[in-house]
């Protein structure tokens, strides 16, 4: 009898120090294993007389049931603890708002570059690129602009070395040279990219964006140039008709050269592009000079074509009613949330280019 009491006491003591499933498993073996204290008690029964055996068996079974259920319950507790801990560790709060996607905006210049690329790709132009750091040769000489040419001074160039051999490109036109040197005609490319001039005020920034266009093939004429630009301006400003005029101009790398103005008017304080009696200059263009073709190993007797260059920032300002160019480059988050675009609104000709 007192054996059972001892066993019970010792069980209670040990049970109260159990810390985890392993401890519990050990405790279980200690009492219910092959040589466990409870198991051994069952073996002593044989030596008892029937009356004693009956009582003893009853008591021993009660104790056995008590302890087993205690152990089982404790196992369950440990299991629940484990599961809860696991749930806690692996918790993902799916109620958090997706901040970056909701608040991130596409800069108007990037948006306009996408719009322009989409419009020109519809009529067979592909997008070419070149580096911001250029050689003096590609930026000027190969473009028929020799060293003493006044156009060099007009470009307010940032030179990067004493000898004036490397510079930040002053226009995207050097990509004409790169493209023609690296391939065979026909060429039909546009080049959006950064350009640099030492100039800064409300309408000029030292870094700005240009779009170059180049189409070289057999029998390309000024008529193709006019048709192409007319198509582009109509698509870009999303108007059916556009008033355009070509004014004679001069660029060393085109002959003849022209500047293009588009008609506009102000209505209720807003600019309306395409009609009206005011003119706005938007680009320079012309037929690629035979010297440029020669410099790039293209035979001017077989091939000819047009080129144009325009300011992308200016186009973005006109289309989206932004009146200070400098704001483009100030990285003011409030400005960007107002004038920026939804990243999922990728412009295409079919879905519509702007919001
Ligand atoms: N590169 C000229 C500029 O920056 C623009 C231009 C490009 C003119 C191509 C004619 C042909 O002013």
Structure description:
- The protein has about 350 residues and is α+β, with helices and mostly antiparallel strands.
- The protein folds into two domains: about 90 residues; about 230 residues, BirA Bifunctional Protein, domain 2 (2-Layer Sandwich).
- It is about 45% helix and about 20% strand.
- The strands form two sheets. Strands 1, 4, 5, 6, 7, 8, 9 and 10 form an eight-stranded mixed β-sheet that branches.
- The model has no long low-confidence stretch (mean pLDDT about 90).
- The site of phenylalanine (PHE) has 11 residues, from strand 9 and strand 10.
Summarize the structure.
The N and C termini lie far apart (91 Å). The chain is built from 13 helices and 10 strands. Helix 6 packs across helix 12 (312-320).
Q: Compute the number of helices.
A: 13
Helix-strand pattern? HHHHHHEEHHEHEEHEEEEHEHH
The CATH homologous superfamily of the largest domain is named Bira Bifunctional Protein, Domain 2
| End-to-end CA span | 91 Å
Tag the structure with descriptive keywords:
single chain; BirA Bifunctional Protein, domain 2; 2 domains; two-stranded antiparallel sheet; 13 helices; 10 strands; binds phenylalanine
Annotate the secondary structure layout.
Layout: H1 2-17, H2 21-32, H3 37-44, H4 50-89, H5 99-103, H6 108-122, E1 126-127, E2 133-135, H7 136-139, H8 150-154, E3 166-168, H9 174-181, E4 187-196, E5 207-217, H10 222-237, E6 244-251, E7 254-267, E8 270-273, E9 278-288, H11 290-295, E10 304-311, H12 312-320, H13 333-339
Parallel strand pairs: 1-4
Antiparallel strand pairs: 2-3, 4-5, 5-10, 6-7, 7-8, 7-9, 9-10
Helix pairs in contact: 6-12
The protein binds phenylalanine.
């Amino acid at each position: 009898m007192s054996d059972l009491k001892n066993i019970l006491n010792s069980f209670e003591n040990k049970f109260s120090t159990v810390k985890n499933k392993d401890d519990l498993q050990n405790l279980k073996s200690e009492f219910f294993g092959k040589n466990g204290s409870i198991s051994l008690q069952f073996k002593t029964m044989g030596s008892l007389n029937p009356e004693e055996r009956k009582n003893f068996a009853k008591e021993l079974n009660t104790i056995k049931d008590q302890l087993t259920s205690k152990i089982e319950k404790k196992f369950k507790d440990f299991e629940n603890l484990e599961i809860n801990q696991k749930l806690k560790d692996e918790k993902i709060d799916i109620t958090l708002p997706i901040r970056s996607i909701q608040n991130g905006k596409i800069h108007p210049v990037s948006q306009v570059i996408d719009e322009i690329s989409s419009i020109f790709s519809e009529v067979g132009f592909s997008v070419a690129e070149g580096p911001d750091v250029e050689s003096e040769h590609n930026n000027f000489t190969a473009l028929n602009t020799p060293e003493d040419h006044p156009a060099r001074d007009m470009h307010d160039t940032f030179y990067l070395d004493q000898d004036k051999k490397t510079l930040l490109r002053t226009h995207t036109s050097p990509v004409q040279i790169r493209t023609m040197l690296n391939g065979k005609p026909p060429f039909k490319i546009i080049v959006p990219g950064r350009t640099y001039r030492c100039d800064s005020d409300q309408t000029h920034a030292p870094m700005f964006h240009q779009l170059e266009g180049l189409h070289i093939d057999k029998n390309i004429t000024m008529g193709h140039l006019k048709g192409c630009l007319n198509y582009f301006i109509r698509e870009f400003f999303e108007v059916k008709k556009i008033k355009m005029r070509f004014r004679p101009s001069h660029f060393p790398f085109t002959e003849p050269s022209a500047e293009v103005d588009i008609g506009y008017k102000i209505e209720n304080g807003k600019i309306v592009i395409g009609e009206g009696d005011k003119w706005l200059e938007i680009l320079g263009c012309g037929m690629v000079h035979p010297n440029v073709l020669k410099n790039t190993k293209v035979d001017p007797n077989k091939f000819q074509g047009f080129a144009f260059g325009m300011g992308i920032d200016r186009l973005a300002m006109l289309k989206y009613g932004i009146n200070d160019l400098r704001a483009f480059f100030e990285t003011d988050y409030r400005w960007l949330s107002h004038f920026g675009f939804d990243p999922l609104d990728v412009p295409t000709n079919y879905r519509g280019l702007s919001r």
